[in-house]
Amino acid sequence: MSKITHIAIGADFDILIQNMVDEYLDEHQNYPWIITFSGGKDSTLVAHLVFDMLVNLPPNLRTRQIYFVSNDTLVESPLVVGHMKKTLNQILKSAKIYNLPIDGQVTTPKLEETFWTLLIGKGYPSPNRGMRWCTDRLKIQPTSQYILKKVNENGAVILLLGVRKDESQTRRISIENHQNIAGSNLTPHSSLKNAFVYRPIMDISTDDVWEFLVFNNPPWGGSHRELVQLYKEAAGGECPVIL
Q1: Tell me, what DSSP letter sits at residue 131?
Q2: Phi, psi of 160 (to 5 degrees)
Q3: pTM of the full predicted structure?
Q4: In b/e form, how buried is each residue of 211-232, taking b as 16+ CB within 10 angstroms?
Q5: Of the candidates 70, 79, 72, which has an alpha carbon nearest to the alpha carbon of residue 115?
Q6: Average pLDDT, the chain
Q7: Tell me: the pLDDT tens digits for 220-229?
């Protein structure tokens, strides 16, 4: 395999990428990878690393199919949704040029499950801390249906999640409470049968995420500048490291 080049930063990304290569080439190659892609910094980092890894693998080893699944709740910020769809489209177009086994889809809630149908048509109360029905109906259910469809087609799937212990204490506890299968990097999904979870960047710090994205252009072309700007301008959001 040719050397993947990028600017060295705090975290050892060479080891991380090699672990991803080993996982991709593991004996369960019949099970596709599904990357849940929101267009945010963490899912973008996972997408970047996976795409980079595939480009640098010999074509005869690119045997595992990879699916990107994004979600549009239909009530998100147009800027956020626009960035997500634009980036996903760039990934899929570039994957065809490189002849990579990558496909993807943007899921949306069914008409009878959309926000305004439930709020006005069915009289649901406005989402609040005690009743956050919007997350389940608009985001989780459409994505879960896509995942279960791939489970039925392939027997099982592996979900690549861009979750990190450094996000919060709650996230750290959640990750540490989910034990991997013995001798494996995979964890059974808590609710989706025959779906397994792989968390490739869980030990990466927030600073390392931003430094990687700032200093390394995406392998599908362009730059991560628009993503950085979105976070920088987000009201009350985190401001990435700007050097």
Answers
A1: B
A2: -95, 115
A3: 0.84
A4: bbbbebebbbeeebeebbebee
A5: 72
A6: 83
A7: 999 999 999 9
